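so my prof wants the structure for this chain in the tokens format not the other one, which i didnt know existed until like an hour ago. anyway here's the sequence
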Amino acid sequence: MKIVILGTAWPYRGGIADFNNRLAQEFINEGEIVKIYTFTLQYPSFLFPGKTQYSPDPKPDNLDIVRRLNSVNPFNWTKVAREIKLEKPDILIVPFWMPFMGPSTGFVARRLRKCGTRCVAILHNLIPHEHKPGDRILSKYFINSVSSYVALSESVLADIDLFDKSRPRLFSPHPLYDHFGAISSRKESVEHLGLNPDFRYILFFGLIRDYKGLDLLLNAYADSRLRELNVRLIVAGEFYGTSEKYFELEKQLGLEGLVIWKNEFVPADEVRYCFGAADIIAQPYKTATQSGVSQIAYHFEKPMLVTKVGGLAEIVPDGKAGYAVEPEPAKIADALVDFFTNNRQEQFTSGVIDEKKKYSWAKMTQAVRDCAK
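here's what i got, hopefully its the right format
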């Protein structure tokens, strides 16, 4: 088949771009012809809170990626739709992760549907974590533009009913992020990062946004029981928005010198060391659907602590692959104390290795094919 993916991809960075790059590679491995249409302009600079939208990593091998779509120029959307129509794709895959992208990608999908192309939306989020005026209108426009849906969590699958109850839809969980290289040993990772091997480490990884609950984790980490253990917290990721409140909270809680801040975007070739050094990955989210961080943790076979929001607890079975707790500092602290004092790492690592078998990319490509029938 000929497949076109319309959405963010290299040279842009981030989890959604990584997802699209990896999905394209899987279809190619299965013998399909794949082309990715990504953005010439993704976010206007005044809407982007990070340092840069672009990846420091080289272009993925074997991928046919062209930059065509301008997210804010309707005249461009017509041109892109016309160009993709000439490709005569069997399937147009349109990832959706935020309402802002709904008009541009939805417009192109509508034009392709009129030509008989099956347009499959892969829904990372449908209801945004951080609400803005007009979100519902933009999401509805997008939802009405496609033929069918693949939702990455049960919670997103349920959200579709808020906009549409008739079109085909499937749930297929977020596959492993297995493109970050081989597992790095603890010894190699600690040495590479310049960490003290005598400590054990909690890792908070990824872009730092309010809904991800770093403040909850800092409050939990201040628990006196954790202070008696040789445990350090690593925060590895770039701030999206203000950083002052987190550093002020660190000071108020008496955590200065105890938190290891690596507050910058982590290049792909460094990810293995962050996870290799960690004993447990903490995702204390206040709201969520699913998380790519969980799928990196599964790839590197690391136990996780997640909160019972969105679809996170679907992905991390409590007591098997780690902990699923309420998004409260005391509950997070209780779980971390239990993990380190009762030496749960070997037990939970075994559970992670068993659970990771569920999250293959072949299951995702099959779900897309099934939705396109």
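also thought this was worth mentioning. Residues 15-29 form the longest helix (15 residues).
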